[in-house]
Amino acid sequence: MYLKKIGILSTLSLSLLLTGCGNKEEKVVYDGVGEAVNYTVTGIEPGAGITDATHRVLDEYENLAGWEIEESSTAGMLILLDEAIKNEEPIVVTGWTPHWMFEEFDLKFLDDPKNVYGGIENIHTLARLDLDKDMPNAYKILDAFQWDVEDMQAVMAEAEKSSFEEAAENWVTNNQEKVNEWLAGTEKVDGETIRVVSVPWESEQASSNVIKYVLTEQGYNVELTEVDPAIMFQAVAMDSADVTVAPWLPMTHKTFYEQHKDNVVDLGPNMEGARSGLAVPTYVEIDSIEELEAK
């Protein structure tokens, strides 16, 4: 990948645009994005949902004939994204929100006219059967739990500099009015254990640690476990866990939800507006996947 980037400058077709009257700063405007990035999408881990979807994108869009996805890791993708933006070079990455990259960098999603990535998703809260009877106060809090993309990304961004536990505590402290809405009509308990299951994604580490802190402050002994998505759904459905705040629906976790929906209680979205797709820095002057040219 690094060798590919070395060759970028020799193949770029660019023009220079003065920004602001009398301003000597220059902005690089890129034409021929595909050639500039060597017809490569910078991706993450093989087998990830967004990786599989991107392979389908490359198959379904005729203008992406000859394109490849460079599979590496989330950390590797972010390093290359940071490098490209510092040098104001074009790059096409697999992006998703909520994620702190959208707090840190000026990025935009490319329109997906064929809707291969599935459009906007919501993150749901799923509880085991009879949780409302066994833990009515926890159930009320979980049912009321709802926050925004910006909230989650703020926790994720702070956790990069500290920890998810510390970032969650600070977010709760700074957003007590919103948290009080979740707590309305509930009472504290004395050491009752509640089992929260999640997945090891940064977005879900943010939400799970926030709800863990809130429930702990209400007197619960919170056991938080991170597992693969399939096991997460199975645990709630089979009463090995009490709740999860991590499922992405209707697309990302559709298969697991369909398998277990009769044995869980869907409390609805705790966050709306999740999205995944191809993303580029805002200085890259294209707006749609269809504007990427074939090799």
Describe this structure in words.
By secondary structure, the protein is of the alpha+beta class. It folds into two domains: 2-118 and 276-291, D-Maltodextrin-Binding Protein, domain 2; 121-274, Dipeptide-binding Protein, Domain 3 (Dipeptide-binding Protein, domain 3). The chain is built from 14 helices and twelve strands. The protein has helices spanning 2-6, 8-11, 33-36, 49-60, 74-86, 101-104, 131-134, 136-144, 149-159, 164-174, 176-183, 202-217, 229-237, 254-260; strands at residues 13-18, 26-31, 40-42, 68-70, 93-97, 107-109, 121-128, 193-198, 221-226, 243-244, 248-249, 264-281. The strands form four sheets. Strands 5, 6, 7, 10, 11 and 12 form a six-stranded antiparallel beta sheet that branches. A hairpin with a 7-residue loop joins strand 1 and strand 2. Helix 9 packs across helix 10 and helix 9 (149-159) packs across helix 12. The relative contact order is 0.19. Pfam families: OpuAC (PF04069). Keywords: Cell membrane, Membrane, Transport. InterPro entries: ABC_Gly_betaine_transp_sub-bd. GO terms for molecular function: amine transmembrane transporter activity; carnitine transmembrane transporter activity.
